[in-house]
Amino acid sequence: xxxxxxxxxxxxxxxxxxxxxxxxxxxxxxxxxxxxxxxxxxxxxxxxxxxxxxxxxxxxxxxxxxxxxxxxxxxxxxxxxxxxxxxxxxxxxxxxxxxxxxxxxxxxxxxxxxxxxxxxxxxxxxxxxxxxxxxxxxxxxxxxxxxxxxxxxxxxxxxxxxxxxxxxxxxxxxxxxxxxxxxxxxxxxxxxxxxxxxxxxxxxxxxxxxxxxxxxxxxxxxxx
Length: 224
Hints:
The protein is an alpha+beta fold. It has 2 domains: 14-155, Glutaredoxin (3-Layer(aba) Sandwich); 171-221, 2-Layer Sandwich (Antioxidant, Horf6, Chain A, domain 2). Helices cover 29% and strands 25% of the residues. The strands form 3 sheets. The protein has a 7-stranded mixed β-sheet. It has a 4-stranded antiparallel β-sheet with strand order 10-11-13-12, with helices on one face. Strands 6-7 form a two-stranded antiparallel sheet. Helix 2 (45-56) crosses helix 4 (76-89). The protein is elongated.
Protein backbone atom coordinates (compact mmCIF):
# COMPACT_ATOMS: atom_id res chain seq x y z
CA UNK A 1 0.00 0.00 0.00
CA UNK A 2 1.70 3.26 -1.06
CA UNK A 3 1.87 6.29 1.18
CA UNK A 4 1.48 6.37 4.96
CA UNK A 5 1.74 2.88 6.40
CA UNK A 6 3.13 0.80 9.29
CA UNK A 7 6.17 2.41 10.91
CA UNK A 8 5.45 5.92 9.59
CA UNK A 9 4.85 8.87 11.88
CA UNK A 10 1.32 10.26 11.87
CA UNK A 11 1.23 13.74 10.27
CA UNK A 12 0.53 16.44 12.84
CA UNK A 13 -2.58 17.82 11.13
CA UNK A 14 -5.18 20.19 12.58
CA UNK A 15 -8.66 19.06 11.57
CA UNK A 16 -12.23 20.24 12.11
CA UNK A 17 -14.39 17.64 13.83
CA UNK A 18 -17.77 17.20 15.46
CA UNK A 19 -15.94 17.91 18.75
CA UNK A 20 -14.24 21.10 17.51
CA UNK A 21 -10.76 21.53 16.06
CA UNK A 22 -8.25 18.79 16.90
CA UNK A 23 -4.50 18.61 16.37
CA UNK A 24 -3.69 14.98 15.71
CA UNK A 25 -0.50 14.68 17.77
CA UNK A 26 -2.18 16.30 20.78
CA UNK A 27 -5.15 13.98 20.37
CA UNK A 28 -3.23 10.69 20.09
CA UNK A 29 -1.06 11.75 23.02
CA UNK A 30 -4.10 11.37 25.28
CA UNK A 31 -4.19 7.55 25.20
CA UNK A 32 -2.02 4.48 24.64
CA UNK A 33 -3.46 3.84 21.18
CA UNK A 34 -5.77 5.73 18.84
CA UNK A 35 -7.82 4.17 16.06
CA UNK A 36 -8.12 6.56 13.13
CA UNK A 37 -10.57 5.25 10.55
CA UNK A 38 -12.15 6.56 7.37
CA UNK A 39 -15.46 5.86 5.67
CA UNK A 40 -16.52 6.54 2.07
CA UNK A 41 -19.47 8.78 2.86
CA UNK A 42 -22.18 9.94 5.26
CA UNK A 43 -25.71 8.54 4.84
CA UNK A 44 -24.43 5.35 3.19
CA UNK A 45 -25.45 1.85 4.32
CA UNK A 46 -22.20 0.04 5.20
CA UNK A 47 -20.70 3.14 6.81
CA UNK A 48 -23.78 3.59 8.98
CA UNK A 49 -23.39 0.04 10.32
CA UNK A 50 -19.64 0.48 10.83
CA UNK A 51 -19.80 3.71 12.77
CA UNK A 52 -22.64 2.25 14.78
CA UNK A 53 -20.48 -0.72 15.73
CA UNK A 54 -17.62 1.62 16.61
CA UNK A 55 -20.02 3.32 19.01
CA UNK A 56 -21.24 -0.01 20.39
CA UNK A 57 -17.64 -1.12 21.04
CA UNK A 58 -16.46 2.24 22.43
CA UNK A 59 -16.44 0.99 26.04
CA UNK A 60 -14.37 -2.06 25.07
CA UNK A 61 -11.87 0.18 23.32
CA UNK A 62 -11.77 2.53 26.33
CA UNK A 63 -11.04 -0.41 28.65
CA UNK A 64 -7.88 -0.97 26.63
CA UNK A 65 -6.84 2.69 26.77
CA UNK A 66 -7.88 3.24 23.16
CA UNK A 67 -9.73 6.21 21.67
CA UNK A 68 -11.37 6.71 18.28
CA UNK A 69 -11.33 9.30 15.51
CA UNK A 70 -13.39 9.01 12.33
CA UNK A 71 -12.68 10.71 8.99
CA UNK A 72 -14.67 11.38 5.84
CA UNK A 73 -14.97 13.89 3.01
CA UNK A 74 -18.31 15.24 4.28
CA UNK A 75 -18.61 18.39 6.40
CA UNK A 76 -19.37 18.69 10.12
CA UNK A 77 -23.02 19.64 9.60
CA UNK A 78 -23.52 16.49 7.55
CA UNK A 79 -21.77 14.40 10.22
CA UNK A 80 -24.00 15.80 12.97
CA UNK A 81 -27.16 15.02 11.03
CA UNK A 82 -25.93 11.55 10.11
CA UNK A 83 -25.05 10.71 13.72
CA UNK A 84 -28.79 10.69 14.49
CA UNK A 85 -29.25 7.86 11.98
CA UNK A 86 -26.24 5.95 13.32
CA UNK A 87 -27.52 6.09 16.89
CA UNK A 88 -31.06 5.16 15.90
CA UNK A 89 -29.90 2.12 13.92
CA UNK A 90 -27.43 0.68 16.44
CA UNK A 91 -29.81 0.43 19.40
CA UNK A 92 -29.11 3.82 20.89
CA UNK A 93 -25.35 3.57 21.47
CA UNK A 94 -24.12 7.14 21.46
CA UNK A 95 -21.43 8.29 19.03
CA UNK A 96 -19.08 9.72 21.65
CA UNK A 97 -15.99 9.89 19.42
CA UNK A 98 -15.21 12.81 17.06
CA UNK A 99 -15.67 12.57 13.30
CA UNK A 100 -13.35 14.79 11.26
CA UNK A 101 -14.48 16.69 8.17
CA UNK A 102 -12.36 16.88 5.03
CA UNK A 103 -14.49 18.08 2.07
CA UNK A 104 -11.40 18.80 -0.04
CA UNK A 105 -9.69 15.45 0.76
CA UNK A 106 -6.48 17.23 1.83
CA UNK A 107 -6.08 15.36 5.11
CA UNK A 108 -7.46 12.02 3.96
CA UNK A 109 -4.88 11.98 1.16
CA UNK A 110 -2.05 12.61 3.62
CA UNK A 111 -3.36 9.78 5.81
CA UNK A 112 -3.36 7.39 2.81
CA UNK A 113 -7.11 6.93 3.04
CA UNK A 114 -8.23 7.69 -0.52
CA UNK A 115 -9.55 4.90 -2.73
CA UNK A 116 -7.60 4.93 -6.01
CA UNK A 117 -10.55 3.59 -8.01
CA UNK A 118 -13.83 4.68 -6.41
CA UNK A 119 -15.14 8.15 -7.33
CA UNK A 120 -18.20 10.14 -6.36
CA UNK A 121 -20.75 11.68 -8.74
CA UNK A 122 -18.43 14.68 -9.26
CA UNK A 123 -15.50 12.50 -10.26
CA UNK A 124 -13.60 13.02 -7.00
CA UNK A 125 -11.85 10.15 -5.27
CA UNK A 126 -13.73 8.93 -2.21
CA UNK A 127 -12.18 7.84 1.08
CA UNK A 128 -11.37 4.16 1.36
CA UNK A 129 -12.47 2.04 4.29
CA UNK A 130 -9.07 2.43 5.97
CA UNK A 131 -8.02 2.10 9.60
CA UNK A 132 -4.74 3.03 11.30
CA UNK A 133 -3.82 2.13 14.87
CA UNK A 134 -1.45 4.81 16.21
CA UNK A 135 0.75 4.50 19.29
CA UNK A 136 0.37 7.61 21.45
CA UNK A 137 3.96 7.38 22.71
CA UNK A 138 5.84 7.69 19.42
CA UNK A 139 2.97 8.79 17.12
CA UNK A 140 3.74 5.94 14.71
CA UNK A 141 1.37 3.69 12.76
CA UNK A 142 1.50 0.24 14.35
CA UNK A 143 -1.15 -1.49 12.23
CA UNK A 144 -3.15 -0.63 9.14
CA UNK A 145 -6.25 -2.18 7.55
CA UNK A 146 -7.63 -1.35 4.12
CA UNK A 147 -11.04 -2.63 2.99
CA UNK A 148 -12.98 -1.99 -0.22
CA UNK A 149 -16.23 -0.04 -0.01
CA UNK A 150 -18.24 -3.26 -0.33
CA UNK A 151 -16.81 -4.87 2.83
CA UNK A 152 -17.54 -3.65 6.35
CA UNK A 153 -14.93 -4.08 9.07
CA UNK A 154 -15.14 -6.70 11.81
CA UNK A 155 -14.87 -4.98 15.21
CA UNK A 156 -13.97 -8.23 16.97
CA UNK A 157 -10.91 -8.44 14.73
CA UNK A 158 -10.00 -4.83 15.56
CA UNK A 159 -10.19 -5.72 19.27
CA UNK A 160 -8.14 -8.87 18.70
CA UNK A 161 -5.29 -7.06 16.97
CA UNK A 162 -5.32 -4.35 19.64
CA UNK A 163 -4.90 -7.03 22.30
CA UNK A 164 -2.07 -8.53 20.26
CA UNK A 165 -0.32 -5.16 19.83
CA UNK A 166 -0.61 -4.36 23.50
CA UNK A 167 0.61 -7.80 24.55
CA UNK A 168 3.67 -7.53 22.29
CA UNK A 169 4.34 -3.97 23.48
CA UNK A 170 4.21 -4.98 27.14
CA UNK A 171 6.79 -7.71 26.51
CA UNK A 172 9.13 -5.37 24.58
CA UNK A 173 8.33 -7.53 21.55
CA UNK A 174 9.83 -10.68 23.05
CA UNK A 175 6.63 -12.50 22.18
CA UNK A 176 4.25 -12.54 19.23
CA UNK A 177 0.75 -13.89 18.71
CA UNK A 178 0.17 -16.81 16.31
CA UNK A 179 -2.57 -17.14 13.71
CA UNK A 180 -6.12 -16.93 15.08
CA UNK A 181 -4.75 -16.04 18.54
CA UNK A 182 -7.20 -14.75 21.14
CA UNK A 183 -6.51 -13.39 24.65
CA UNK A 184 -5.83 -16.21 27.08
CA UNK A 185 -4.29 -18.48 24.46
CA UNK A 186 -0.55 -19.31 24.25
CA UNK A 187 1.78 -16.88 22.52
CA UNK A 188 5.02 -17.62 20.69
CA UNK A 189 8.48 -16.57 21.86
CA UNK A 190 10.49 -14.36 19.53
CA UNK A 191 13.29 -16.16 17.61
CA UNK A 192 15.66 -13.44 18.88
CA UNK A 193 15.33 -14.87 22.39
CA UNK A 194 17.83 -17.68 23.07
CA UNK A 195 16.83 -20.82 24.95
CA UNK A 196 18.75 -19.65 28.03
CA UNK A 197 17.09 -16.24 27.91
CA UNK A 198 13.68 -17.89 27.44
CA UNK A 199 14.15 -19.91 30.64
CA UNK A 200 14.76 -16.69 32.57
CA UNK A 201 12.09 -14.61 30.84
CA UNK A 202 9.38 -17.24 31.05
CA UNK A 203 9.75 -19.05 34.40
CA UNK A 204 6.32 -20.58 33.82
CA UNK A 205 8.01 -22.64 31.12
CA UNK A 206 7.39 -23.10 27.41
CA UNK A 207 6.79 -25.87 24.89
CA UNK A 208 8.85 -26.32 21.74
CA UNK A 209 7.10 -27.72 18.69
CA UNK A 210 8.77 -30.79 17.15
CA UNK A 211 9.30 -30.02 13.47
CA UNK A 212 10.87 -31.95 10.56
CA UNK A 213 13.64 -29.33 10.37
CA UNK A 214 14.54 -30.12 14.00
CA UNK A 215 14.88 -26.37 14.56
CA UNK A 216 13.55 -25.04 17.85
CA UNK A 217 12.16 -21.73 16.65
CA UNK A 218 8.46 -22.46 17.34
CA UNK A 219 8.09 -22.07 21.11
CA UNK A 220 4.76 -21.56 22.89
CA UNK A 221 4.22 -20.12 26.35
CA UNK A 222 1.35 -18.83 28.46
CA UNK A 223 1.44 -15.25 29.72
CA UNK A 224 -1.01 -13.34 31.87
